[in-house]
Amino acid sequence: MPQPRPMPVPTMRWLLAPTLALTLAGLLLAGCTLLKPAPAPDPLAVYRPALRPGFTLTPAQLDALLRYSITVQVDVAASAYTGTLELTLPITGTAPLNGLYFRLYPNLKQFGGSMTVGGARVDGKTVNFAYDAEGTAVHLALPAPLKPGSIAQVWLSFASKWPQREPGYYTIFGQSEEIVSLTNFYPILAGRRGNQWALDIASPLGDVGFHDAALYQVQVTAPADQVLAATGVAVTRTVAADGWAATRYVQGPAREFTLLLSPRFQTEEAVAYGARVVSYFLPEDAAAGHSALYNAVASLEVYSDQFGLYPYREMAVVQAPLTFHGMEFPGLDLIGSQDYNQHLDALEMLVVHEVAHQWWYNQVGSDQTANPWLDEGLAEFSMYFYQQGRHGQAAADLLRRQRWEAAVAANAQRGLDATIGKPVAEYPRDAYETIVYGKGALFFATLRDEMGEQAFQKLLRTYVERYRWRIATPTDFRVLAEEVAGRDLGALFRKWVEGSE
Ligand SMILES: [Zn+2]
Which domains does the chain have, with CATH numbers? Predict the structure, then answer.
């Protein structure tokens, strides 16, 4: 018998082959996965409910944004609140920070509150703190300097009481006319001028200060019968059996977070270019509340056309105990309660001015203490576009003649004329608004005459695009105006803004 042929011994190669094939298949599959990566998580996901559809930030804008996470318990019966905040703080600029300053605006005389800090931690370590700037700031000592490019985590606890005011008292902070106004109610990182912290004690004439743009998550716990008007969008509201309600807001990017409460607020709402606009008013002023709503809708549409889209999904127009004055906050315009009744004739123009600040102050930030003309003059001049768009060219011309030219001329006759480029504190009280607002608006009107309508519109749109969520300086604005105009505008700026020596 022939020897049976030995069975071929399978070589390692053959044994390995199926494994190799499987491995290769695996690699190919993995390769396919690499070719089609899962989309990166949206860094703004938490804040999307507050942002208009399609809202984007450049990587540089995103990296520079602060992130506040605040919880606050508001005890209306006790005129007091307590809270904690966590701040994620990217260290920008060129120099390390040896300390941090937060502003405690409730301690300003014109706010009339009393605010204290309970404790502070930086990157998990308890740090010492000391009050500064007449109690309107707190300095956090750091165990080691914070280096540019790093990100610090700051934690603070705070408590504050608010004042009770008579009806008719200008109440930017506190309770009056059955409304609690909590503007700038939490410790907020102070603005900086280069490497200097801005610790000015604000004049009652102007804004309290200026702040870096930040993303906000805020949880407010308050008695459930209170109607809340706040910066941002309420994403959840939970009412507990004990009569307290917790409302969680998101907002961003924004300069500040502001909160008003009243058990008597009623609301009416409408839509402007996809944004929900809500008017808050007291029931006896419902007709004016309705007017305020539609003035806000119309101005938001005109400004979106002129300057670029409104960034948020919501805007609130809120009756507040500010006599006949207004005050701007991100996505929230406070309108003095007297403009809803005895000064009803001023309501439209006031709403329209405050809505313009959603571009000039909130989107494009500026140093409101040192250069108030940059946001106030521009917010005031924006009304010209509103008049043109809503009431026609004759109304816009009339605004210029009556509201600005006549007032500025009368002011000059009293010997109070000045250039527009000074800090708030350098103007006499009774000339501040005429010069910074009125003459400020006239400066922009003159610049528009000089540059032509189209170039001026390009200037404002480019100004928003380039400086959105940043702090622009007067020099930034002049350089951009000259870039768009293609020529030197130094003489015009010297005459109106800086003044010649
Ligand atoms: Zn203003």
Answer: 372-498 (1.10.390.10)
